Amino acid sequence: MMVKHRGGARGLAAALAALAALVAACTSSPAPKPDPTAPPAPTAQAGVLRVLAGSELQDMAPILEQAQKETGVTVQFSWTGSLDGAEAVSGNAADGKYDALWFPSNQYLRLDERSRPKLLSESPVMTSPLAIGIRSSVLGELSWGDGSAVTWGNLAEAAAAGKLNYGMADPSRSNSGFSGLVGVASALSAANSALTDEDVAKATPQLKQFFAGQKLTSGSSGWLTQAYTQAEQGSVGALVNYESVLLTMNKTLPPEQRLTVVRPTDGVVTANYPLTLLSSAQPREQESFRRLTEYLLKEDVQKRISEQTLRHPVAAGVAPAAGVPTDRRRELPFPGSLAVATHLLASYQNELRRPSRTVYVLDTSGSMAGQRLAQLKSAMGRLTGAEDSRGVRRFRDREEVTLISFASKVKSTKTHTVPAGAAAQQELASINADVQALSAEGGTAVYSSLEEAYRVIERQQAAAKDDRFTSIVVMTDGLSNEGVSDQDFKTFRAGLSPALRSVRVFPILFGDAAKTQLQGIADLTGGKLFDGTGSLDGAFEEIRGYQ
Amino acid sequence: MKRAFGVLAALVLLGGVAFALLRPTSHDDKKTTKTVTITGLIGSEKQDFFQDEDVKAELAAQGLIVKTLPVGSWQMVDKLDGQAFAFPASQAPADKIRQNKGITEVVSAPFYSPLVVVAHQATAQALKDSGMAAEDPTTHVWTLRMDAYRDALRTNKTWEQLLGGKPKAELRGNVLMATTDPKDSSSGAMYLALLSSLENGGPVSSDAEVEKVKDLLYTAISKQGEKKQSTDLLFKDFTSGVGRPLSLVYESEAAELVRQQNTLGDMVVLYPDTTIFSAHTLVGLNEDGRKLATLLQNNTKLREAATKHGFRIQGDTKAFGTQFRTQDDSFHLAPNLDQAGINHASIPVYDVLKKLTDYATKP
Q: Is residue B122 packed enough to be buried (19+ CB in 10 Å), middle (13-18) or exposed (0-12)?
């Protein structure tokens, strides 16, 4: 699993913490107040609740600052995706390390029988349904008025007709993506109750139509928002995310980019953000949990939570903040078994979504020799492995994978297409064989090799005339010191067709790579930089959410 | 900086004075009650009661500071290390706890609640129009016809059918109560007790009877998909506007809204015409826990507070009606269940309930 500590994500939080520290210093208090922006310590601390949480909860920082003042309980977060978090809990990785969990929902978590005994007490704090935000120009073209009568079926038809292009987070990692998948599968199969394998099979043709419109995917909803705002005019017209996230985005988006929040009339899946005490928490932390939940459910705090986050309060006497819709939608049931949930994820990855065209540009220069090359082979090899029930790593059925090995120039280009079904294993083994055969020698020509990657994609697109989800990963351990310059690459890219120009590059920082060069590539192409210096396996796995 | 320190010093001094003032009184107390702090696991429906300042004050006067955590009644069974008491929502989990811990004392069941269904007005009206629910013309107490509901379950009836093909807001899909997970929570298991009794024509006891009802129970549970750990989660979903047409919760949770004077717009409380009386049962795990059990059973102030929070007191048929008749009660709680024509089904013994749960939740 991937756990990230994002210290000081919020300026306000940092400022308040600094202020708290100053006050503590002035009153010569011996024990400084715990810092809410610090990552959780490995062992429990007095007055601190160590919480493994979804990054969506970052918007609670101002509320939790106030909670700290009034209850003496400091919340320290570790951020991770909901499904990664669920895996951490079921795999015993949260025991003793965290006192509580806070994700948009515990639904996926509770499907795993190993996780249930780990949860002691759940307290829902607020709710928000999954929705799709649609640009008003797109709504207009589709003649959907204010969007209040749109169904999932309408969305699928519009996507199939090429009139609705949207971004949605990877359902294998993110609760918003998984809720979207459950919602659309339930609605399109016309299931009257909880989804079954038969329902999914029945809805497959329509689901493929819907996912034909998915132009952006990501492991985190934060990047999705950024990618939406930066995407070329008209290329992405909608985002699947929580109502609260979409409403909050609208506060800062320019008018032409604002999103009309559409909650399909045939149903939604709602997140209830339960603050959840782990069974492994000690009595002192149980008491902190008790104090914090009691505080969060006070009427005045509930009101502030709704105003701050644009989610619905759960306290009966509190009205939602202005602008939060109050008319109800059917709550679509969440699958009742892990088997159905994992099968749905596998269907999405291997059958329903647009197939990917994934190009890896891998540095095999002399400096990679030895340990580094071994790490690269391990990281790439893991993507060809079989044991991956949630679909977070393995190259997917139908995926076209190209390996470009480069040093002073491109050394080799090998392309594989993973077939569907039982034959997949053989092709995956063949990809792995190519990976294991890589050898390290020569200089580092990052930009020239990237240009070659674009040319490879151009040839592949021209030959296949297909519509694939296309992206490039570039992994290097050094500075580009041969071939064309970054300026040449910029000029080259500007001359590409719009379709090719929209292909994003996801660089992986490794060894002694030049961060500024790689960040520049990510910024230029709308991709995202991943740091592989800590765990190269982790970086290669995390990027799968964007491919 | 100096001033801040001065204020702090003054506060420390004040605290010392307060401590000095308070200490002798507790020493002089005739009962020489030493206040102890105890923790316990409770069904989520009793949180508001234990957080009530009056309740806290009376318990403190009796020498107890009680801290609670809401946990599903069946979940708490094996999580009681270090706790002074367990307070599940019904007797079966309490019995299981006694059995596990080798506790022979009789447990205390100071109050109980019927299970009710909360819905919005349009939902209740749709049920009424199709004959599945009725509203008493004088008392305005709503009842849900459970035989009709059972038939709807059996025949996979949908809201669309009920509404003549015109779905309305959240009224789509199967006519189906949302309940808690019977593996975790008492009310979910009580739902199985209720349905099995209806299907069997009386409480289920033999294996043959279990066999007879199991398909219906499986339908009622599997169709819901993933279920919540506690009625608090279900009820808070309802109050925040999540669109599940019918949610099975405790009467006390609806009554709590009356106490808070939160009318919640158009909520309707539907009493199943055959329901289950859920007897909140406290198991003391040490001397202090047993003291709490005795207090809840016998202390007048605590019994009054329980009534205020919507619980019905064992052996006192009047208290609830008196409390909720006089208040503005837009949900029309039934002051007297007998008079409202509400029956209740018996609850099978633990072993049978376990079998019913296993069948209903089998993967």
A: middle
A chain contacts of residue B227, beta-carbon cutoff 8 Å: 336
Which residues 7-36 of chain B have a CB within 8 Å of chain A?
8
Q: CB neighbours of A463 closer than 8 A, spacing ≥ 6?
A: none
Alpha-carbon gap: B151 to the closest alpha carbon of chain A (Å): 16
Give the whole-angstrom CA distance, residue A371 versus residue A235: 42
Contact of A312 with A323, CB cutoff 8 Å: no
DSSP 8-state secondary structure symbol assigned to residue A272:
-
Among residues A138, A129, A145, A331, which one has the least CA distance to residue A247? A129
Q: How far apart are alpha carbons A203 and A184 in whole angstroms?
A: 9
Which runs of consecutive H residues, i.e. helices, occur in A495-535?
498-501, 515-525
**Bridge-based pairing state of the strands A48-53 and A100-102:** parallel
Distance CA(B240)–CA(A318), nearest Å, equals 9
Q: CA-CA distance, A399 to A79, in Å (whole number)?
A: 30
Rg (CA), chain B: 23
φ, ψ for residue A78, nearest 5 deg: -115, 130
Candidates A55, A167, A84; CA nearest to A546 is A167
Check residue B337 and report its DSSP letter: T
Q: Nearest Cα to A179, choosing from A57, A263, A278?
A: A263
Among residues of chain A, what percentage have pLDDT more than 90?
A: 86
Q: What is this model's ipTM? A: 0.89
A contacts of B173 (beta carbons < 8 Å)? 191-193, 267, 330
Chain A hits for B156, Cβ within 8 Å: 192
Distances (CA, A) of A416 to A456, A461, B202: 13, 14, 65
Distance of alpha carbon B196 from alpha carbon B201, whole angstroms: 8
Angle between helices A371-382 and A536-543 (to 10 degrees): 30
What's the pLDDT band for A357 if we cut at 50, 70, 90?
Answer: very high
Residue B122 at interface with chain A, using a CB cutoff of 8 Å = no
User: Which residue does chain B place closest to A306, by CA atoms?
Assistant: B240
pLDDT of residue A388: 84
Bridge partner residues of B269 (DSSP): B118
CA B296 remoteness from chain centre: 16
For residue B170, give the nearest of A194, A317, A330 by CB distance: A330
d(CA B277, CA B288): 28
Within 8 A by CB and 6+ apart from B205, the residues are: B348, B349, B352
Do the Cβ atoms of B260 and A316 come within 8 Å?
yes
- Chain A interface, mutation test: which of B1, B3, B217, B242, most A Cβ atoms within 10 Å? B242
B120 touching A (Cβ < 8 Å): yes
* Average pLDDT value for residue range B2-27: 42
What are the pLDDT digits (tens) for B211-252? 999 999 999 999 999 999 999 999 999 999 999 999 999 999
Q: Which residues of A62-80 are buried (b: 16+ CB within 10 A; e: fewer)?
A: bbbbebbeebebbbbbbbb
Residue (of B89, B144, B85) closest to B118 by Cα position: B144
Report the pLDDT averaged over residues B161-189: 94
- Does the distance separating the beta carbons of A266 and B4 come in below 8 Å? no
Q: Which of A193, A296, A305 to mutate to test the interface with B (most CBs of B within 10 A)?
A: A193
Alpha helix segments (H runs only) across B72-201: 91-101, 121-129, 146-154, 159-162, 186-200
From the list B172, B257, B264, the residue facing A267 with the nearest CB is B172
Closest to A89 in 3D by CA, of A274, A277, A289, A272: A277
* Predicted confidence (pLDDT) per residue in B39-59, tens digit: 999 999 999 999 999 999 999
